Amino acid sequence: MALSSNDAEAGRQQREVAENENQFTLSNIKLQRLIHLTDYLPDLQIHPNPLDHNPFFHPVSEFYITPYDVILRHILHDLSGAFPSPGPHLAYHRAGPRKQIYFNQTHVRAAIVTCGGLCPGMNTVIRELVAGLWELYGVREIFGIRAGYRGFYSDEPVPLNPKMVREWHRKGGTVLETSRGGFDLHKIVNAIQDRGFNQVYIIGGDGTMRGMVEIFKEIKHRKLYIAVAGLPKTVDNDIGIIDRSFGFQTAVEMAQQAIGAAHTEAESAVNGIGLVKLMGRSTGHIALYATLSSRDVDCCLILENEFYLQGKGGLFEFLDNRLKDNGHAVVVVAEGAGQDIIPRTESQLQEKDESGNPVLLDVGSWLKSELKNWWARDHPKDLFTVKYIDPTYMIRAVPANATDNLYCTLLAHSAIHGAMAGYTGFVCGPINGNYAYIPVEEVAQAKNPVNTKDHKWAWVRSITNQPDFVRG
Amino acid sequence: MALSSNDAEAGRQQREVAENENQFTLSNIKLQRLIHLTDYLPDLQIHPNPLDHNPFFHPVSEFYITPYDVILRHILHDLSGAFPSPGPHLAYHRAGPRKQIYFNQTHVRAAIVTCGGLCPGMNTVIRELVAGLWELYGVREIFGIRAGYRGFYSDEPVPLNPKMVREWHRKGGTVLETSRGGFDLHKIVNAIQDRGFNQVYIIGGDGTMRGMVEIFKEIKHRKLYIAVAGLPKTVDNDIGIIDRSFGFQTAVEMAQQAIGAAHTEAESAVNGIGLVKLMGRSTGHIALYATLSSRDVDCCLILENEFYLQGKGGLFEFLDNRLKDNGHAVVVVAEGAGQDIIPRTESQLQEKDESGNPVLLDVGSWLKSELKNWWARDHPKDLFTVKYIDPTYMIRAVPANATDNLYCTLLAHSAIHGAMAGYTGFVCGPINGNYAYIPVEEVAQAKNPVNTKDHKWAWVRSITNQPDFVRG
Amino acid sequence: MALSSNDAEAGRQQREVAENENQFTLSNIKLQRLIHLTDYLPDLQIHPNPLDHNPFFHPVSEFYITPYDVILRHILHDLSGAFPSPGPHLAYHRAGPRKQIYFNQTHVRAAIVTCGGLCPGMNTVIRELVAGLWELYGVREIFGIRAGYRGFYSDEPVPLNPKMVREWHRKGGTVLETSRGGFDLHKIVNAIQDRGFNQVYIIGGDGTMRGMVEIFKEIKHRKLYIAVAGLPKTVDNDIGIIDRSFGFQTAVEMAQQAIGAAHTEAESAVNGIGLVKLMGRSTGHIALYATLSSRDVDCCLILENEFYLQGKGGLFEFLDNRLKDNGHAVVVVAEGAGQDIIPRTESQLQEKDESGNPVLLDVGSWLKSELKNWWARDHPKDLFTVKYIDPTYMIRAVPANATDNLYCTLLAHSAIHGAMAGYTGFVCGPINGNYAYIPVEEVAQAKNPVNTKDHKWAWVRSITNQPDFVRG
Amino acid sequence: MALSSNDAEAGRQQREVAENENQFTLSNIKLQRLIHLTDYLPDLQIHPNPLDHNPFFHPVSEFYITPYDVILRHILHDLSGAFPSPGPHLAYHRAGPRKQIYFNQTHVRAAIVTCGGLCPGMNTVIRELVAGLWELYGVREIFGIRAGYRGFYSDEPVPLNPKMVREWHRKGGTVLETSRGGFDLHKIVNAIQDRGFNQVYIIGGDGTMRGMVEIFKEIKHRKLYIAVAGLPKTVDNDIGIIDRSFGFQTAVEMAQQAIGAAHTEAESAVNGIGLVKLMGRSTGHIALYATLSSRDVDCCLILENEFYLQGKGGLFEFLDNRLKDNGHAVVVVAEGAGQDIIPRTESQLQEKDESGNPVLLDVGSWLKSELKNWWARDHPKDLFTVKYIDPTYMIRAVPANATDNLYCTLLAHSAIHGAMAGYTGFVCGPINGNYAYIPVEEVAQAKNPVNTKDHKWAWVRSITNQPDFVRG
């Protein structure tokens, strides 16, 4: 296929944007640069986008996204005397179809892998990657990697097609199966190479994204004609930069059920406490949002806001008053909370998780036991009940709701368009409501803690009237 | 295939039945006698039923129930030569309004108490007792006893009226609160007497019913003009004689969610086991029905069918094969199962519950741990995941579904009609689909184990293909 | 209050019953005879039941059902002087596996057909017929007939197996498709014969059952070795003899949603009326049960209780008062209600449905329009809103809930056991909670109207306070 | 209360921003100016924000929002040679608490009114306005206006407090009641003045917002010390500028049920068409999003994309093919679609709605009838079924889901902070994920049509494969 002048122009734009990344000054905008396959494979052939001839698309002038199209990350500005603003404004490439692409549809061989824990919407993402590659770009060789990273080298890939995946969006979990660990860089890259995959779609959380950084770098190092795209998956919403992660809203919805049950159990008992542990190892978003939505929670404990049990201003004093006033109370605790105050045995002190951090102890069971001890000590003659609910699997194993389902569709299509356009080492996600491409290294590092200084947390406190746990 | 004499016999039976279709005769009926207030207060005044003048009722001839109206308990008969049948046929008084009643509506002072654990529908029963007493019989003094039996003597009764309870059927739990224990016979009967209650409605399980037997006897002993009515409540469906208990169908419905989540978790893992503990201390009905409804369960363990883990025909062997075949498995275990094979510590051996039985150990956690040990021992190199779900509170704290809601209405109305008619020491409940009055002593004793010899259990086994755990 | 003789009589009855508790005797039993294939094919070979050797069954002595095992239909008895009771007691053969069967499993060729409108659970019934025939009796030739009766002669049968139907119980509707009409007796029986089917399972309502009577008679007339079993399907619950039909409870549950929405719309408006039309062409069971469960309904209109709009005691007067008192009202109307008072055009007077009855007019739209006219006439200056909801398809197209799902399983297994045992022209269904075989002619005739003289209807009136529509 | 220098500074900032609104050039930003009470009441006293002393807030430096804090509306930029960009960048004031406020909490008298049709979340908004005013600012005089605008002058206001509204977020509809019309400017403003309200919160759609413009202008004209805040409510999502409206996501979720039922009905019939009419008078967002989420829709008709029935490329041709291929099809139609091609009677041609536009005809019923006529004409011998579902009230009368619930909370708090800060004639809403204050005139004009040129619509077409209805 001969290169048209249009095609040449696209390449020029791509290079111009890359070369000038710091020079666009809409009052000082810094564009977060993406790696493109042509960065290390400069002679790649360019192809027209098959959407040009897709009967369902009528590409109008604004249809295709150019490398000049960017999304501003920070949309809040301070117009006060502080001009010029302290640093450059970050911008990201917009996701979407490109007029020219760097793959011939008949030569694409795509692999899809899911890693880590379950999250509502994983199957929708897989479904839409398959349907999108097939319908939008005419790709016919699409494979699922079984059971996480290890599946690249330990299992046969599963051929996928739209008919197979048709109903997958109605199922929780991941039909491809998932697992933790199993990351062996060279085995994985060798397998990708051996099996002839030239597009790899990786669905996973921050650990998975850190693995993806290594895979992508190794592929670049080997100068392989393989695009690697990441689709961030974290039910906890603990990945930064992006607005929120898919499945998160479904999880918050489902958490209402558990809080409702805890509330009923607490209300129906004498001095009843309903205790709900919600997901959130490194951040308390689910606990925070579920508390705000439910309005039945008396105290929400998250790791971003340290708490203590005994003494003035502590949890026990608060609950004592709440039981006196209302006869019952509901406590929500994020699984990552309280790790500093749970006593650890000698072996627990030694034990580290895969990332070298101390293992997470079960804050729910510990708190349940502490509550019982407290009451037996302080109110030995009075009735008391703690009902502890851990709804984790009942929350994360459901299918995505309509909102998350649509998110998954847009996310998958974004990833496809990006890979087809020749970008690699990127992650897709919504920034201020629009889908963007973000360098995977950034995403792998970005945390997303709850901001306990902002209004939302203050509102939690004003809804719950819970203490601030600042020792006076 | 030659016809055996057995085969010939089948044909003969078939013909005999056909020829003799009108000639079978039922043997004697034994009516289960109820205690009536006039048994010990023979001079009680009789009143016409105010339903005679209720604008919403048009009592036709069959409207009022007489003492001659009975329900047969056993509707299955054997018409073969075995005449006469071994014993008399049990019959119970039909529930429903009586033409004459033994209370003057302006003098009724009713108390309602809920005891024991939560069960979907408790609030509907309370609501309908209040609405029914008020609307059907014009009663205006209706009180809730707070937090179980102890509430009679330790708390002020709460006045109730239809406006207060209007929306209670939409709430799980019991607005009156509940508790276990606190049974002090004389304090309770004294309080009933002191507060002037002459109708007492007791909602609770088998333990509560045994308490009611004592209360009722003491009241009879003191010759008090007080009717005591029981409304059996057991989410486990472990009370005999009655068809099933309210809340049970709601619980089975909710259990589907937990099984579904376990199935998704198991399917999405490599060698994944989803383990769900369902309610059922003394019987496995919820586990059985949930398994039959879901069809996603590979093995259903209930206390009525002993099981073992190791060796030929054991659970591990079965799961090993199931994982080889399908890659995953779902196990449902009733909370009362396996108590004989869980090792007990010295202190657990000593510990008895309120009824003097060994305390119930947590079969779910034990099984989870045993499964992990088994796999680590037998398959140390292979991936394995057990996801354990205990959905108890999320199942029992929900409001009743439509079917159970209607049950609760009919149950409450039956109790009211019975008490108004002067019966006492009785329990209401459906027998073969019709509401009956049953002597409370009978109900307090009646167990309701799963019949592992019948077709339903065989069907569970044929759905799950699980072993019979009969050591060969 | 002086004691009338009536009052004294009540006390006497009470004592008489108590004294004579063991002396009542039931009169004769009349067993409803089933047709057996040997009735017209006396030389049929008998086979042992393969369940004898099924690894999941351990047939104990009571496991197999004999022709002597019957179920009593009427379990309510009057023990009073009215001995002997007016007629014989009806009894039906119990459903369940027989020790000897009349089919060789390798020669069975089964057909399954669904007719008429949708009903929750149809797919479960199909699934369980397939799974049961396959797993219990080793049948391997099972076929689905597409789109109702006409499918026998107009379409190729679809081979079915357990793997195909595995997830069908999660789907509403019928995968086999359904249709009305298309009944052509000879074409159907010829097709059954030509295709070599020897077991035919027919799932449908009363019209379908009347068709089955003809099919069964023609097969008998031709002396064919073909068992015909009926599985009654009616979301309206309008088939008599059986306790209730599958899908009915699911429908009542779903109807709550529509009533809830109508209630919200009515409450949120000024003089708001929420009007819900519920299924029930020939009976108002769904309307009745949904009203009892919801408790938000102000008036429930069913065809068994005639109503009128204008004048004293009419609907308008009632609603006028209700709007004055509460500001809103909810009306539930069964689709068969009001047919006598809706004006018919000349052509509607001529139009008959397939059974020759006048066509059903849309009572919901008519009532909505009448309500608007009434208000515009009587209260021209006041705000008024009618929100009309017809949730029919959203109710009947859902999958069965857990209770109905289990019902469908037991129903399907009953049908299989009956056909295998050589019975034909029978229908399965629960009678007093136990599954029975009923001659299809009986079921085809049996109506199941709401009894407006019984307590349930009186309770509806006392919940709604609605008028009795008896013109004074 | 003496004015501190801090207070004076806030006033200065406010005026500076107002005076310099066009001069902040972060590359040419145009701030959308808000009216402030001091614009016409320059001597208003300033008060410190009571949040300073609220035990649940610890205002940090960034806690309070200043008039310099703005949100950029357009976050997508084109970095290409097109510098400078064609026009100024719009910016809006950020919502949130201000350090100084213009109301003394003990003098605030707030009114809340809901207008127009139902929308999930209305009750949450009311609840949070009441709870927020009470808890955050110590306001004790809060009133609900009954049944829309007319309630200001025709009804007594209802005093509200946090206890009353505690459970309202669980209820669909609006407890305050709503109505259309009743807008009488002078009666309304007189009533506001007479009753002493100084904060008015108006919850409604575009028509309501146009009314609010007049109210606000009249209040300004009369120079009244009354802040007027708007909270945009539109289940259709037809208001522009804001990201989306509350209740919209809940509606999309509920619409899945209707589409699912239509799909089941269609699949279970021979040549079955499921037809669902979804809300959307002036825009097809619900239809679009529900189609994308469901993936069961074969054709989505919205007013933004004209369609036709007959001939090449028309709906009938498409459905003919779809029925041939799949045997069934699902069509979703937005209520505003097809108005140009539905024939109007003479009287319908004359009839105008309140805004002077032709009345909306029922596209669902029309389409159902057209489909039947088409089939009868073109395929007179073949079976055909159209099942038409109008789920409007079942969608819009439900409570908000967790996502919308949180939205409602943030929206209500934003409105309170804005009114307290002395802004008036403003509307709150999320812009790019952050809550902003927008001049009500802008919101009253802003439309929000579906962009049929963008990727989402193309994806709908690629999911459905539906025609583009561009006549060739």
Automatic annotation (TrEMBL), chains A, B, C, D:
The gene is PFK. This is ATP-dependent 6-phosphofructokinase. It is found in: Cytoplasm. Its main location: cytoplasm. Pathway: Carbohydrate degradation; glycolysis; D-glyceraldehyde 3-phosphate and glycerone phosphate from D-glucose: step 3/4. It is an enzyme of class 2 (transferase). ATP binds at G117, R180, G181, G205, D206, G207, T208. One of its GO terms (biological process) is fructose 6-phosphate metabolic process.
